[in-house]
Amino acid sequence: xxxxxxxDLTTKTLGVFVTTFARTPFARVHGALSGYHPAxxxxxxxxxxxxxxxxxxxxxxxxxxxxxxQGSNVGRAAxxxxxxxxxxxxxxxxGANSSHQALHLAVSSANTTVxxxxxxxxxxxxxxxxxxxxxxxxxxxxxxxxxxxxxLVPFGVASDRVAEAHGLSRSELDVFAAQQRSTxxxxxxxxVTERTDDREATPAGGAERDADDLAAVPIEAPPLxxxxxxxxxxxxxxxxxxxxxxxVEPHPGDTPLARIVHTATHxxxxxxxxxxxxxxxRAALQTAGWSAxxxxxxxxxxxxxxxxxxxxxxxxxxxxxxxFARGRPTGASALAALGHLATTxxxxxxxxxxxxxxxGTAAVxxxxxxx
Length: 371
What we know:
Radius of gyration: 20 Å
Number of helices: 10
Oligomer: single chain
CATH topology of the largest domain: Peroxisomal Thiolase, Chain A, domain 1
């Protein structure tokens, strides 16, 4: 694709850099990292930044399910475990957009900010925030207004519906997912000691793991939600445990990972959540004065192959989802996708990072790989 000519943007996001990046390996649910507390896992990513942290540094932590072990400000617990005793933290809960929205908030700050994300899905599964009714139902009356239209649905059901609407076959979805699983790159994870939730199966002292640890994809798998549906374990991004941290600052340093060019969000109809990324991307590109063909790469941290292929149809250029190969700890995955995108771009090229939450909110970041 064509290299983008620099344009003068008047947004406050211009000239903000991602300078340091670290992540743990990602591991399958009840796998190599399942015995950690989320705060412990996140503290490893924070210390992996090897950062001299001034007390004024903001730490913003995305977490999709901030309840139980991930509640009570898991970010502050992690800073204490990392030895950053004078550094506070704030949590951002926005579903699959959580760490991406934390990044957007950091970009709007004039200060150096640590942006992080964590999700231990072995312990706090997807949807955990809605499982307890002791303190009232999530969404309350806001959810009731959608009841007559079939109600709010999880990504798997939404993927079935959007695949049917766009005429996507099970074979197309499986082929796309297989292609994405074979092409992952990006910054390697830091080594972490394995610790499973099955303590008897954990080697004494724990083995070191410095690569992602995902369960094998089944050769055949039945549809997940509907006997006639197309969404199956073969074409959804796998749930995982993991943590990511990076540094955003107004000065590039010696070898910045990426320059943030522009950010945008779009909130659409929750019953058509998977349409929101296309709208958000078009809005961001219009502001920048570009088209989708100006982008060297689009990295969509999509929940499924159906979601990614629909965006690909909407924008008319290839869309990539590296989470198929890496795993997707929901609240942290966007930052891992950013690291992958930045290191996949050629120097001087611009790419787009997209995420979407089940409530129909999409976030997009346009970033450049510095020359």
